[in-house]
Design goal:
This protein is mainly beta and about 140 residues long. About 5% of the residues lie in helices and about 40% in strands. It has one helix and eleven strands; from the N terminus they run E-E-E-H-E-E-E-E-E-E-E-E. The strands form two sheets. Strands 6-7-8-9-4-3-10-11 form an eight-stranded mixed sheet. Strands 1-2-5 form a three-stranded antiparallel sheet, with no helix packed on it. A hairpin with a 5-residue loop joins strand 6 and strand 7. It is globular, with a radius of gyration of 14 Å.
Length: about 140
């Protein structure tokens, strides 16, 4: 069981079951929605996620992949919590930074490296994709 929450503490959640793999996304949308050089998300089974308290807002946009992605965030402070997609309805993709203990997170792959900032580097040993990844594609 992993737990987490937003910056202000209004949102708390838990996720039961195996988490992973973690992935980094360098696309422009992920940079903009996180305010960082890239987004790191961890796969969680949708049936294992439980919102314990707080209210989430949502914003849906079709990404460069052509898939609609919904980004869920705390309505009180705006912290991004997770991303979902109808293309992968069985999973959500938790933002690694909202986990209470993100120390287990280590990206296994990175996508949209064609959009990567030249000063932003992850280890060369992880799988890299210039654009999206075929399976699963919804982590962005």
């Amino acid at each position: 069981m992993k737990t987490g929450g937003c910056l202000c503490g209004a949102v708390r959640f838990e996720c039961e079951g195996e988490l992973g793999p973690a992935g980094a996304c360098h696309c422009e949308d992920c940079r903009r929605c996180t305010g960082a050089a890239f987004n790191v998300s961890v796969r969680c089974g949708a049936d294992g996620f439980r919102l314990l308290r707080g209210e989430l807002g949502a914003f849906t946009k079709t990404g460069a992949s052509g898939s609609a992605l919904t980004r869920w965030f705390c309505k009180a402070c705006g912290s991004p919590i997770y991303t979902s997609s109808p293309r992968h309805a069985d999973a959500i993709y938790l933002k690694a930074g909202v986990l209470d203990d993100p120390s287990f997170v280590s990206p296994a792959f990175q996508a949209w490296t064609a959009s990567r900032m030249p000063w932003s580097r992850l280890p060369d040993a992880i799988a890299s994709y210039e654009r999206g990844r075929d399976e699963p594609a919804g982590f962005r």
